[in-house]
User: What shape does this take?
Amino acid sequence: MLARIKKGLGKTRDAFKHKFENLFGGREINQEFFDELEEILISADVGVETTMKIVELHRERLGVEKIRERSAARELLKRQLVEMLESNQQTALALAASPPTVYLILGVNGVGKTTAIAKIAYRFAQEGKKVLLAAGDTFRAAAIEQLDEWSRVVGAGIIKHQSGGDPSAVIYDALNAALARQADLLICDTAGRLHTKANLLEEVKKIFRVIQKLLPSAPHETLLVLDATTGQNGLSQAQYFQEAVPVSGLILTKLDGTARGGIVVAIKDRTDIPLKLIGIGEKKEDLEMFRAAEFVEALLA
Assistant: This one.
């Protein structure tokens, strides 16, 4: 598993390998060390606010633990980042006490939402679960077609309406179908763009209400998909979806496509939404449960 994550983070590792080697090259810790660490973290897309927090805490803990050699500081930084990423972190995907488990998937267009849905469906289908997809992004015709194609690839059923239809009606029919067919898992797609942000969020709220009316315990996960390559823009997306519904977890896609994987740390620090899944490739198998220790080891090894 660690080898797959290391490979997925290849661009980030290549971009910062020499910088980290120079930083932890065994020289005495001084102000230059903290300046270099700050520069590396900001260039890795950790963000200014989170970087300042990390550097100041690192300075304090180096003093408390009486660490004076840079080589020893690497292990301390690893522990520090793991603690930050594991804070309030419930990485396991929730499952209903009795089927169906319902996942509501959010995200703007272009973040890899449809592919993420397919990869989740594939994971559960491989475990022998009966999976049903709801094509709730009726505002983009291609989204319905893509999800339909993916349903065949991963071995899942699908409930869909015509393009331009009412998304809530699709979700309503899909949840009824999941109950009638005794499906183990229902994964609901949603729109990624309407004319305004307000319209999009109202649509998301409406879908949430429809699900809860039919099955009060659902959705068991409300997962927001963010694209790692968009960097700090993902933070604002997380914040405005949180305005509409309680987001229970994040899926960070395209980590293999960025040299600035530090965005993982920034998003966790700024939103405190648990990061549950990371996309590290284009294949249907390339979606991993997020494990902070493995991620940090892959980044700083």
Q: What stands out?
A: The mean pLDDT is 91. The chain is about 50% helix and 10% strand.
